[in-house]
Hints:
Blueprint lengths: L13 E5 L3 H13 L3 E5 L2 H11 L3 E5 L7 H10 L7 E6 L4 H9 L4 E4 L3 H15 L14 H31 L3 H12 L5 E10 L2 E8 L9 H12 L6 E8 L16 E5 L5 E8 L2 H4 L2 H31 L9 H18 L3 E8 L2 H8 L1 H18 L5 E6 L2 E7 L3 H17 L15 E7 L8 H18 L5 E2 L1
Parallel strand pairs: 1-2, 1-3, 3-4, 4-5, 7-8, 14-15
Antiparallel strand pairs: 6-7, 6-10, 9-10, 11-13, 11-14, 12-13
Amino acid sequence: MSLHDRSLPPARARVLVAxxxxxxxxxxxxxxxxxxxxxxxxxxxxxxxxxxxxxQPAVVITDLEMPxxxxxxxxxxxxxxxxxxxxxxxxxxxHHEATSRFWGQHAGADAFLTKDELEGRLIETVxxxxxxxxxxxxxxxNPPGNAIEVLxxxxxxxxxxxxxxxxxxxxxxxxxxxxxxxxAAQALLELLAQVVxxxxxxxxVVDERGLCIHLYRSSDAIRRVDPDSLIAFVADGLGPExxxxxxxxVNGQDQQDENxxxxxxxxxxxxxxxxxxxxxxxxxxxxxxxxxxGLPSKLLVKAAPHAGLVLDNVRLADHLLDISIHDGLxxxxxxxxxxxxxxxxxxxxxxxxxxxxxxxxxxxxxxxINDAHGHLTGDxxxxxxxxxxxxxxxxxxLVGRYGGEEFLAILPAASLEAAAAVASRxxxxxxxxxxxxxxxxxxxxxxxxxxVASRAEVSGPREIQELIGLxxxxxxxxxxxxxxxxxx
Length: 488
């Protein structure tokens, strides 16, 4: 039976055998016909592709090494073409090779047999695959008529595969080049803007930190966007339990024509991102929904899992960095991090010959608080104290947990007198506002003692140690003077 024999009715028991060896085809025919299958033969991959697209067999059995088109290319073509993707493909080879099996599976093969397994496994394998092979409801028109048309399809599929691989590779490179979530998100949007003709692209991610929205506006966007409406639209699309916005970053065009029409937010197309312990979406407002429905949409769908992987990795890196420099209880900088920042600020102050002061403070009678109210209450006190200390400092100041109930604040460009004034303000606020403790009958009064020192008071190669030592001495002086006071 040849490829030109069109007398057979469509049947799921039809098998196409592609092999350039007459002997091999004869052996396969004998096995398959003996088991009740109808067999079509092809002498090379191109002839097999024409036959598969015209005759719609349930299974194609193909050799690897054939003229015109090999078995890998045939499998890849059949699995990528909508008219033949349902056809099961069995790769048959004369040798065991891990590389051949790996590449055959990635080309789309459903099974991989060696020729010494024919008698034992061929019929069982083909029968199982034929029972699950079902053609699509609508078959594509115009199947290829010759080998040239088949090769043209192969080239087209290979080109599409190359485009997919190029985009995915560049998406993954974003994860290598960018270490922070915000930077990676904006780089991904700039990359996707090269693929999709859209006025606005976005990435929305919800995790324990809240809702983060990153946007990219094209340089020639003409429609206006109302930020509040956009945030509400994105949050609503992510579900009723979406937390409040924690970050909104816009890249690209930042000027909007007040007379321009508003962007239709409902025209958004979204693609879900697979993230660990988070929810995320790619948001697209295309210029033309008809054009986007074609190749750009397919490319985004294929890129989305890899974009999710990149964002997951940078989120994990951000988290690891965060826990490496922040105290787990108070969320202030930890001991190592605050000393590193002090070193940086001292070098900066020396370079620009500017002032710098530090404040070392300690919660008064903290052991007594723990003994009287328990360690959970002590933790609540420390968190409340840390929050009030940070709130009482300037936005340019730095503060960290130095150890236990001790905290170190760095005040760049502040003289000794200015730093003492800041510490005095915080000291008064503590006295005026006791800490509410859950479960306690009354609020707990909390005070602290403060020691202040200035860079101008120290010199020499160990000036950081001397500066902290001076502040520590003054802290102990404040405690000796009755606590709840400041000693510069």
